[in-house]
Structure formats: C-alpha cells, structure tokens
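Check this:
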Amino acid sequence: MTVARDIMTSDVTCARESDTVLDAAGTLARLGVGALPVCGEDNRLKGMLTDRDIVVKVLAEGKEPRAVHVGELAQGEAVTIGADDDVEDVLRTMSEHRVRRLPVIDGHDLVGVVAQADVARAMPHLAAGELVEALSYD
C-alpha cells in the first residue's frame, strides 16, 4: 500500500508568520517552488502561501510586500493529510478541497508536502488524470 510518506517531498522549507511577503517571495524564487507552508513561531503549520496569494492578495491590491506579513495571508485552517494515510486518501482530499499541494503531518509535525506532480509520478495515468481534472478550474 502506497502512503503519503512514500510520495511526498520531504525537504520542506517553511515561511514564518512573521516573515514579510517580500522575504517569502524571495524564498519561493530561490527554491523554484510555487508554494510554501506557513509555520508559526511554535513550528506548527498555520497554512500555505502560494505565489498566486502574493499576486492577488498583495500586489493586485496595491499593498507593499515589505509591509505585509505572511501570517496575514495564511487564513483559515490548512488542509492536511497524515503521513501514513493511503494515497487514495491523498487523491480524495486534494480533489474535495481543490488543492494542488497538501502538507503532510506526522502527529503535529510537518514532515513534507504532496504536490499534484508527486501524485502524477506515483499513480497510474488514469488516477493522475482524474486528479488533474478535479483540480482544474472551470
């Protein structure tokens, strides 16, 4: 049985709630990724920050990226999956919540992220195609 831990990317960098959006954008660019988990000072997951969040919630609204903190954008509870949850649960959770990246939790610790690309590499083409279709916006 394939579980989230088997397909996740485990080398994960968190943005801190206290980081500025400009700092987080630099981290996204340096790592070549489109999203970062947001962790509090207690190292607990607080949400996810995407490059789209920065564009839509900061730049498009004319806000100064040096003045906005990441914690202001990480609103609501993050959708997560357990490290030992079956890959079918990963697919179902991503589809139901229409998320392309899913933080992986072991207890209260962030241990990785499963991205749509990770699923595509690990699953049969049909399952990967169904996920892409479910995540595609109308």
User: Anything to note?
Assistant: The radius of gyration is 15 Å.
